Amino acid sequence: MERIPILKMGPFLLVTIQVDLYDRLALNLENDLITMVSKTGARGVLIDISAVTIVDSFMGRILGNIASMSRIMDAETVVVGMQPAVAITLVELGLTLQGVHTALNVERGMDLLYKKTDVLLDQNQEEEEEAAEQDPE
Amino acid sequence: MDTNTTARLLLRKKQDILVNWMENQLADDTLRDDLISNEELNKQSEELLDGLLKAVSHGNFENIYSPEYEQTLDTLGDISITRARQGFSPRETNLYVLSLKQALTDVLEQEHLNDPALLYKEVILINKLLDNLSIATFETYLKGREEVILRQTDELNEISTPVIRVWDGILALPIIGTLDSSRTQIVMENLLQEIVNTGSSIAILDISGVPAVDSLVAQHLIKTVSATRLMGAECIISGIRAEIAQTIVHLGIDLSNIRTKSTLASALQIAFEMLNLQVRKTGQTSVTKLLR
Amino acid sequence: MITMTKDTMEIVREQDVVPFRNRVKELATKIGMSLVNQTKLITAASELVRNMLKYANGGKVTLELISKAGQSGVRLTFTDKGPGIADIQQAMQDGFSTGRSLGLGLPGTRRLVNEFAISSVVGEGTTVTVTHWKNGR
């Protein structure tokens, strides 16, 4: 069955949607992502929709679901790269994706995830701890 | 009565009709020789008359939407659209066609002076035909005018919503005039596209130039802010005058989710803060250095 | 009003949605509709097709290119033989839904297009007609 690939980048999961999703594919993505979050203990999910030309209420609901479910598992969700035409249409439709963080592009999205999840801090602490452990030797 | 005979008669008398028609036009007080030269007018008139006589040569005086009238309607359409753009008034444009009616009936009158019954029928026929043509002219004239208005509206919308890059990462969009739904659409499109182009993360919407904010305008503003947020940028609304603040509260419009500032300057200030930027007087730094 | 082209598509399963959207896009591109207006129209079409699949197990869509007073546009007619809508006025209100969705469907869709007409007979089916003009006015 066709699936959207999910990449693991450090503490985060990265998904780039390159095709217009039909329902089954979107539901699979929701399922796969949540499974991955729980399996890897990821702290953030970044979804790149810059290649998506149509986001209807179904697709909007999937994005909202992913964000809410991830949050319960202590992971933040950032949707990046929304096309202007898609943003205007969503607003007109009445969907504002409450609870979903947004950023202009993948780079900004990563920055936002680091800020939202304090992962950088954790990593530094780990590094310090590692350094402290290594010191006596 | 045989309409073919009438058609043949008119065709034979073509030169007379043209001369007559031109005389009518040139004698008219409302002749706009400032907008069109007499030679040009003559050429135009001859072309139209040629087409018309060809059309009636099949004996059809009734239905101007049949194929043989295509050329005539095209010529007529061109003429009235050009006239609409050149600034001819509706009366002047219509008189052009109606003066042809006079020319045609004059010729028929000379020919059938002895047969009033036939003349009457023919005049009625010509009247009907020319009335129809004049209606068609008027329709195309209006269409031409509407095109002018539409183009002006587009231009106005285009120039009245500039997106300014005030700082690296900060866009400002001064809105001047009323914000209706079609303008909101253009504002949103321009703003969001510019956000993508420049990678800006903050947009300031300045509404100092918006005369009044009612619930509909507020709704448009909220939509613009929401769309900006969906793209991943933050939106600040500035230029909220005292009376606008009053109406917003009286109307019970909720803007609490939106950052608002009274002036563009204070909006810029807060934008700097959001980007961790500081603006200082250069003189002051040297003083602090001295104090150290 | 003149109809320039006309064809129909059967929608019976969710896999039909994406090809249908592409067909709408083709029509909109053909008359030179701007990207934002295209996106609005396709999103509206997507919503309506989804409704049709959800409540009536599919139906038929008529796609037309039309022209009125020198202005060209796309008209879509969605016909299903589903249960019908008992109270159309209620269904057109924001926030109303019988199908556990966000309730944005019909009122949201109406905001996306220039013209929207709906008629329904309980037990016989529903017909929705939407029209979007080239310049979106």
TrEMBL record, chain A:
Q: Which PROSITE patterns match?
A: STAS
Segments forming domain STAS: 2-113
Highest taxon above the source species: Bacteria
Name it. Answer: STAS domain-containing protein
Upper taxonomic lineage: Bacteria, Pseudomonadati, Bacteroidota, Cytophagia, Cytophagales
UniProtKB/TrEMBL annotation, chain B:
Q: Enumerate the spans annotated as STAS domain.
A: 160-271
Q: Do you know which PANTHER family this protein is assigned to? A: RSBT ANTAGONIST PROTEIN RSBS-RELATED, RSBT CO-ANTAGONIST PROTEIN RSBRC
Q: Which Pfam families match?
A: RsbRD_N, STAS
Is the keyword Phosphoprotein assigned to this protein?
yes
Top-rank taxon, per record: Bacteria
Q: Which UniProt keywords apply?
A: Phosphoprotein
Would you tell me the protein name for this molecule?
Answer: STAS domain-containing protein
SUPFAM superfamilies to which the protein is assigned, alphabetical? SpoIIaa-like
What organism does this protein naturally occur in? Pontibacter qinzhouensis
